[in-house]
Amino acid sequence: MLQEMGITLWQPAPKTAPAVAEQRPVDRSAARAAAGQAAGVDAAVMERPPAAQPRQPQTQPQRPAPAHATVTTAPAQGSASSSSATANATLRAPQALYPNADAAATPKELGSGWLVVFETATPDEPFGGDSGKLLDNMLRAMRLHLHPRTHACVLERSVPGGQEINTDAVKAALAETIAELQPALVLILGLGAARATLGNREPLGRLRAAQHRLADGTPAIVSYDPAYLLRAPDAKASAWADLCHALAVVRKAADN
């Protein structure tokens, strides 16, 4: 303000400042690089995702096996494999089918008696169900309803199905029954009954075509069982041929 007004201001000379240590020039480019490097480090630190924390091990619950998974179980010691398993079978005590028939009116050509061996779903009632009704019709067509010594032995398996049958017990029971009844012929109906009583592994067609002799010499004829004939009515003609063959065998023996 004094200078603007033209007034000269005299001031004492300034005191000499103490010596200051020599200062080195600052390299601004290096400073800027250092600053930029620091800024880059900070940016990298901000952009770096946080370090993953180690997860504590977790116990996974045991999942059930899927439905289609195959579980292999070792067979129990001493048990038979399914491929070689055999089912026990019982030959029931003989039942008189027509006990009220008049023995005096029995045709001579029917022989001393008949024994029919077969399987049925109603072992206590041989004539039960549709297959039993068909069996009754078959025997009546042969006139066996006139014979009071027409008996039936039902083969009963311990396990239903197509398993192999242990034939030893069946053969022993059949031999005892034949020794007791002394039938003129044993009529075997069905593949299962035929294989159990004869111990023969041939198919039904070959078993039907042959005339068999049991251990004591009693003749046996094989044919279809009534349950099969209900499923395959076309086989009834062949079954009737088998029954006629059985009648012929007994008639021939009675004539002699």
CATH homologous superfamily grouping of the domain at 88-255: Uracil-DNA glycosylase-like domain
Shape descriptor: rod-shaped
CATH architecture of the domain at 88-255: 3-Layer(aba) Sandwich
Question: What string, H for helix and E for strand, traces the elements in order?
Answer: HEEEEHEEHEHHEEHH
Helicity range: 25-40%
Radius of gyration: 53 Å
Main sheet properties: 7 strands, mixed
Write the CATH fold name of the domain at 88-255: Uracil-DNA Glycosylase, subunit E
Instruction: Output the structural class.
Output: alpha/beta
How many helices? The count is 7
Q: What's the CATH class label of the domain at 88-255?
A: Alpha Beta
Poorly predicted spans = 38-50, 59-85
Query: How large is the share of residues in beta strands?
Result: 5-15%
Distance between the termini: 173 Å
* Oligomerization category of the chains in this entry: single chain
Structure description:
The protein is an alpha/beta fold. It has helices at 28-47, 129-141, 167-181, 191-198, 204-209, 226-231, 236-255; strands spanning 86-87, 89-91, 95-96, 114-118, 150-157, 164-165, 185-189, 212-213, 219-223. The strands form two sheets. Strands 2, 3, 4, 5, 7, 8 and 9 form a seven-stranded mixed β-sheet that branches. Strands 1-6 form a two-stranded parallel ribbon. A hairpin with a 5-residue loop joins strand 8 (212-213) and strand 9 (219-223). The longest helix has 20 residues, at 28-47. It is rod-shaped.
